[in-house]
Write a structure and sequence with these properties.
single chain; alpha+beta; Lipocalin; eight-stranded antiparallel β-barrel; 2 helices; 8 strands
Length: about 140
């Protein structure tokens, strides 16, 4: 009876060792981490809406009225230039992205907005005044 128990234990240990080496060799124990695609802001983005994060309803109404039915397009170029295209004017500035922050050069200083990437084609940006700009990608990258 003792010999049967010892044989069963040795066989179990051998099977466990073989299974361990097979799993370790094939990499099943550590599946590859899917590559997270790097987000690129380059392209044309249409301003969909704007609102203020503060608790002021009158401020939200003012911001919403100002940007209602706006045809504002932001064109982020690969050479770090930003064109803001509205029905009345086109402005050109420089920009750069660092982690989740967008820095746009206005005059001699940079203003910063925090980007919240919803999808590859939908982002929102929050500026220092707590105004949120929601934009959708207009064209492919």
């Amino acid at each position: 009876m003792k010999t049967k128990i010892i044989i069963a234990l040795v066989a179990t240990a051998a099977l466990c060792s073989i299974a361990y080496f097979i799993i370790a060799k094939t990499g099943l124990s550590n599946p590859p981490i899917p590559h997270k695609s790097k987000f690129s802001i380059v392209g044309e983005w249409k301003l969909d809406s704007a609102y203020n994060n503060k608790d002021s309803n009158s401020l939200n109404l003012l911001v919403a009225a100002f940007f209602a039915d706006s045809n504002i397009v932001f064109k982020f170029n690969a050479d770090s230039t930003l064109q803001t295209i509205s029905p009345n004017e086109i402005t050109k500035q420089s920009y750069y992205v660092n982690n989740d922050s967008l820095f746009v050069k206005e005059d001699s200083a940079y203003t910063v907005s925090v980007m919240q990437i919803k999808t590859d084609s939908l982002i929102s940006m929050v500026n220092k005044d707590s105004t949120v700009f929601v934009m959708s990608r207009k064209t492919a990258k």
